[in-house]
Amino acid sequence: MNQLCGTSSIVGCQFTLSPMSERYVDIILFALKEVNMSKVWSETDDVSTCIRGKQIHVFDVVRAIFLHAAKTGEHIAMSGTFSIGCPGDSAADVYMDESDIALNKDDTKEIDQLAGCKFALYPLGREDYMEKIYEQIDWSKETEVNVSHSHYATRLDGKVNDIFNLLQNVFDQTKQDVSHVTMTFTLSANSPTGKAKEVKVS
Amino acid sequence: MNQLCGTSSIVGCQFTLSPMSERYVDIILFALKEVNMSKVWSETDDVSTCIRGKQIHVFDVVRAIFLHAAKTGEHIAMSGTFSIGCPGDSAADVYMDESDIALNKDDTKEIDQLAGCKFALYPLGREDYMEKIYEQIDWSKETEVNVSHSHYATRLDGKVNDIFNLLQNVFDQTKQDVSHVTMTFTLSANSPTGKAKEVKVS
Ligand SMILES: [Ca+2]
Fold it and tell me: What is the value of ipTM here, to two decimals?
């Protein structure tokens, strides 16, 4: 199998947006309609949506989709993976020529939405990957977001905009040293249980 | 930071189950109630559920939760990550002493549910990680499940039981060679769009 473009700087995010509501189709379509996606490549099927392009625009669009869905007040989950340097990814892409002006920032920066998030960072192909992970967790603790340990993940609690700033910084800092990085995340907003009421299921 | 138990054989799965329905709380509670979780450690909070124990029981329980949720007929998404050998994971756990008899197999093996799935395998700490991934993708094509390429993931279409058998085999085979493995997955069942009607959102 060909291993293409391990040094490509194209960033991708494959995610599933799940509004826990009968109106989930309307909410997903509403969120997508509210977001300006003209600077990214995108494709949606029955399992997930994939966004590809420059890092700044991929994060801008994913953040905006989550915020516009969450502002409906419904319980919204979003799980996905950010990737860069995937050897299977295609290199040439017109979307890499876009300018660095994020198109959705003005619309989303004032949305004051809280969320819980769990994320995990996977620097690939490196024996020192755990050092890279711990560096980023240590750095995360200096931010506005509440950072705690969870099984197989780091938990973040705070404003969605602060959480996305943190995720984007962690991803950006890691890719400086590591050519292939993936970062998984799950966000939850408007949960009726909330963080204060963690429950055991067994 | 201490790096504990890189050779621990405890398997974990952190996942988010999302029924796209007003009744999502009932559906989640129903699915959890239908599943025998006595051989695994589990914890649920507002973002996700974590299941830990022997590999056979972790896969058995996650599969059963998805199948019991999907048999309600509602559109169900489940996104998660299976892990083994995580240096932050705790070693000693009474659940590792359980026998290898899967408690939910009799209840779930006859549930004839179709789903779409995207998964990605991350063998960590290894420079030859892409070879391990390609070996497993090649092997997957020999199974009952329809395997296709997707951005940043491999797509599977088929019966949920066949999909979980494939995921468990991929994970099991990879861990023979690699001490720290994670595998992300997103499953979607009862989607009104289905695979035949892939749509572009932009
Ligand atoms: Ca309803």
Answer: 0.89
Alpha carbon of A110: minimum distance to chain B alpha carbons (Å): 24
Burial readout B44-54 (b: 16 or more C-beta within 10 A, e: otherwise) = bbbbbbbbbbb
Tell me which of B27-41, B129-143, B164-178 is least confident. Answer: B129-143
Domain assignment of residue B201, yes or no: no
When pLDDT is cut at 50, 70 and 90, the band that residue A194 belongs to is low
Shortest distance between the Cα of B23 and any Cα of chain A, in A, equals 8
- Read off the CATH number of the domain in which B72 is found: 3.30.70.930
Contact A164, A158 (CB under 8 A): no
pLDDT over threshold 60, residue B92: no
B38-67: per-residue pLDDT in tens? 999 999 999 999 999 999 999 999 999 999
Residue of A nearest to B131 (CA): A1
A88–B202 C-beta distance less than 8 A: no
| A 177-196 → B contacts, CB under 8 A | 182, 184, 186-188, 191-195
The partner residues of B118 in beta bridges, in order of sequence, read: B155, B186
> In B72-120, where does DSSP find H-type helix?
105-108
Q: Is residue B94 part of a domain?
A: no
Give the whole-angstrom CA distance, residue A66 versus residue A167: 14
